[in-house]
Amino acid sequence: MSLLIGLRRSVSIARGARVLSLCPRANCSRPKCTIVPPSCQPVKGRRLLHTSVALHDKVAFLLAGPVEGTREVLVKEWHVQVGDRVSKSDPICEVQSERDKGASTICSRFEGVVTHLYHEIDDTVHVGDPLVVIETGVPADRVEDIVGFRKAMVQTMTAANSIPTFGFNDEVNMNALVRTREQLKDMSATRGLKMSYMPFFIKAASVALSQYPVLNSSPNKDCTALTYKGAHNIGVAMDTPAGLVVPNIKSVQEKSIFEVAAELQRLMALGAEGRLGLNDLTGGTFSLSNIGAVGGTYARPVLLPPEVLIGALGRMQAVPRFDEKDNVVKTHILNISWSADHRVIDGATVARFSNLWKSYLERPATLLVDLR
């Protein structure tokens, strides 16, 4: 709805209807004053904004003259500009009577956004002329402090933005892992677990990290030394009511796939309830983000300093592919996107690590060879 604010004793809108202003004093005995008598004027502040009845999509704000008989005023100051949001009682402008030089403040009685100013400073405005147009029904802005997990994310992402990264993308044939997971469903259920693919991704990453320990390291603040971490504390990004969090599973290298699944299930339950502890959220050495759970295939994950590698898992899709005999077959494909700290990690190392991780998933039985 558009609202006209102006100096108007009467106005024709909506098929010629005429609307008269009302006296601003609620207890005034005068039924309808088109010009406010001196006895009705406020002593201080002199906020003399009148409103009319809304007809169709426009409302005329009617202003009585500062003194009886006033027919024009000067615009002395604007308190708003086009695009400003105004609330009830916010000042719109200051005007000065041409007759007695008295100043008055015109205020809004509606919430909305100013879309047009009709006059410049020191313009003469006659009774009946509009001053501004206000559009109502515009959603209000909401300001919210950044606290908690979001504040921690701001600090982490700001630090990550200063690190040059190397990206590497690939796709994984998931057919064999789809069959393996299906075979383990009943066994998982007897242990109270809902087996997803994530425990396999996590365990395969840990086994591959054993071959490439530099990817489980962290540089010091000025990047003059690397600390190789003994434990594989693998973080999993989670979308929770409190925001993005990355709790980590401690010492994955010592856990079975079922133990990884149980710990992941525990962390997800705590995350959904907002009850993750400090120990769950600190000490990570490597991270995976399952962006495919929300949607999308490839991504550009952002590092979580001081970690030097992070992977983003895309949505698994069934697509046509050629097999070794050139037959078109249904293939489950998962996309993986890696980001590495290029100050200390070269692209070839990331590619080799990714190829090894991928091979464990495409041939799950090979995980047994390197399990400890």
Description:
The chain is α+β, with helices and mostly antiparallel strands and 372 residues long. 23% of the residues lie in helices and 31% in strands. The protein is built from seven helices and 22 strands. The strands form five sheets. Strands 13, 16, 17, 18, 19, 20, 21 and 22 form an eight-stranded mixed sheet that branches. The chain has a six-stranded mixed sheet with strand order 4-5-1-12-10-7, with no helix packed on it. Helix 3 (198-211) crosses helix 4 and helix 3 (198-211) crosses helix 6 (347-362). 30% of the residues are buried. Residues 7-58 have low confidence and may be disordered.
Name the features.
about 375 residues; 22 strands; 6-stranded mixed β-sheet; alpha+beta
**Biggest sheet, open or closed, and with what strands and sense?**
8 strands, mixed
Looking at the chains present, what oligomeric state does this protein adopt? single chain
Q: How far apart lie the N and C ends?
A: 70 Å
Order of helices and strands: EEEEEEEEEEEEHEHHEEEEEHHEEEEHH
Shape summary: elongated
Helix content: 10-25%
How many separate helices?
A: 7
Supply Rg.
34 Å
The averaged pLDDT comes out at 83
Low-confidence stretches: 7-58
**Strand portion, in percent?**
25-35%
Number of strands: 22
Class of secondary structure makeup: alpha+beta
Describe the structure concisely.
A hairpin with a 6-residue loop joins strand 14 and strand 15. The chain is an alpha+beta fold.
